[in-house]
Design brief:
With 273 residues, the protein is mainly alpha-helical. It has one domain (4-249): Collagenase (Catalytic Domain), CATH 3.40.390.10. Helices cover 38% and strands 8% of the residues. The protein has helices at 12-31, 36-46, 50-65, 74-78, 155-158, 178-185, 194-204, 216-221, 231-241, 259-271, and strands at 82-85, 92-94, 101-104, 110-112, 131-134, 149-153. A three-stranded mixed β-sheet has the order 1-6-5. A three-stranded antiparallel β-sheet has the order 2-3-4, with no helix packed on it. The longest helix is centred in the first third of the chain and has 20 residues, at 12-31. The radius of gyration is 18 Å and the shape is globular. Mean pLDDT is 75; it is low at 170-176, 245-258 and 265-273. Bound molecules: zinc ion. Zinc ion binds at residues 200, 204, 211, 231, 272-273. Residues 200, 204, 211, 231, 272-273 line the site of zinc ion (ZN). Residues 197-238 form the Lysine-specific metallo-endopeptidase domain. Pfam families: Aspzincin_M35.
Length: 273
């Protein structure tokens, strides 16, 4: 379920759809026999052969790929495990039972107050660009779905003048000039695309609990089995599954990011959850 608060975010629906279709492509890349590129990419990102880790990873991608994003009505919300919000935490209220915690009046979730969009800080003390996944901090009650997740896109990520491309494909339906894009900025620029972030968070909704490593260099350095449970690894694999030109440019040296971009990446890195 995509909450109506997300309609204010340009390209949000497209980004959600792209994250899902990237997962479908990732799934087919893993299960297709004799896919040398798939083997290479899988080994590079998960640090284990496709033959040993592919089954679990493909199941998670199949799960994400089966999602059907619809805008939220009360009926839709009641039947959705995964709920995406762009309300900057409007629904969270201080918990009466637990000081320092907040509760979600619409979803019955609880979370530490420190993780809210409006209070989270990065290592430099800046307000966080938090994309929070908030799952139950308590046992589900009878009748509640134990798999329920809410995902929140904070205003801070979108509105301080930082342009966030929503999808890897441009609005004309043509492939972005990804090769030049990557050569100029390094692969971590992918992390600034909205659909990448959505894919990262959707991975957490399946059997991908970990945030062991963020960013390209750390992701490829991460060893299995952590890599098989690391959300950024899934986001990179999904993104690179739908970017066919990656192969020609995989050896290109990443450029040094600008100071501004580096600062932004650090914020995202600190607060992707
Ligand atoms: Zn995460």
């Amino acid at each position: 379920m995509v909450d109506s608060s997300c309609s204010k975010v340009p390209g949000f629906a497209d980004a959600v759809r792209e994250a899902i279709s990237a997962s479908t492509r990732a799934f087919s890349r893993i299960v297709t026999p004799d896919d040398d590129r798939g083997d290479f990419l899988f080994n590079l990102i998960y640090s284990t052969p496709r033959a040993s880790g592919g089954a679990a990873v493909s199941l998670n991608f199949a799960g994400i790929g089966s999602l059907n994003p619809v805008e939220g009505s009360p009926f839709v919300r009641a039947n959705s495990n995964i709920r995406l919000y762009c309300d900057n935490d409007a629904r969270w209220k201080p918990s009466e039972q637990q000081p320092g915690w907040v509760q979600d009046k619409d979803n019955g979730m609880v979370a530490p107050e420190s993780s809210l969009c409006t209070t989270a800080r990065d290592s430099n003390g800046q307000t966080g660009n938090l994309w929070g996944v908030r799952f139950n901090g308590r046992a589900p009650r009878v009748g509640e779905n134990a798999r329920r997740f809410t995902i929140t896109l904070c205003d801070a990520l979108l509105f301080p003048g930082v342009p966030v491309p929503s999808t890897f494909l441009n609005t004309g339906g043509k492939l972005l000039d990804w090769a030049r894009f990557v050569q100029r900025t390094g692969l971590d620029e992918i992390r600034g695309v909205l659909s990448f972030t959505i894919l990262h968070e959707l991975a957490h909704c399946f059997n991908v609990p970990g945030d062991y490593a963020y960013g390209w260099e750390k992701v490829v350095a991460l060893a299995a089995p952590q890599s098989l449970e690391n959300a950024d690894s899934y986001a990179f694999f999904g993104a690179l599954s739908i970017l066919p030109d990656f192969w020609r440019y995989r050896d290109a040296a990443p450029a040094v990011p600008s100071r501004k971009r580096r600062a932004r990446q650090q914020r995202v890195t600190s607060f992707s959850s």
